[in-house]
Specification:
Elements: H1 4-18, H2 24-41, H3 45-50, E1 54-59, H4 68-81, E2 84-91, E3 97-105, H5 109-135, H6 141-163, H7 170-182, H8 193-203, H9 205-216
Antiparallel strand pairs: 1-3, 2-3
Amino acid sequence: MKTERERKLDKLKKCLRLAKSSNEHEAAAALRQARKMMDELGLSADDVAASEASEAQAKSQAGRSPPMWETLLASTVARAIGCGLFFRGRYTARSTMEGHYVFVGCSGGAEIAGYAYTSLSRRLRAARSEYQAKHLNRCKRANRVERANAFCTGWVIAVETKVGALVVAPENRAAIDSYMARLRLQPGRAENTVAKAEEAISRRYHDFAQGARQGREVDLRRPIAGGGPAPEAIR
């Protein structure tokens, strides 16, 4: 059940939509009413814009510093669905750190992005395990991890070329940016992700190429077993 403040906020949004009416008298009246309600609620225009966005999270394999390829995958999904993205680490009841990628979007976009990331990350982790078992089982641990990371980077970049990026409606972009600004975050990719990807490619090109080959074979329309239908946004 919505709170009184949430009901007033819904009414405020309705007034703001009416303020765009082609009828100048109706628009003026709605704008005056909206201005009065914003003062009563103590809201700014950015606060109202941010209220149109919501967030959904997907679990990371890391609590503090996720691997570069995982961040690259989350960033790829966020751009494809048209969402903002940030990483959040929190302590659990057992005092262990648990990390999540948080997607910020409008009209269900955040939920779709969270589902898409979870589905693709499951496929990637399965491909990583299979590649390690077949090709890296004799490597020392540090070398095995580095080569597997290069494989994953290639996989993600190949998938990225297939999904493209969504052109986000200006009003949705404003809502997402306002939401992120309230959290004092900047929308976009994590810093240095691309530079780190290029470094991984140069060090382990063979493993990167194998990952890219498998990534190109990924059918984005095929759902994960037990995960429900594939989201329309990545078809």
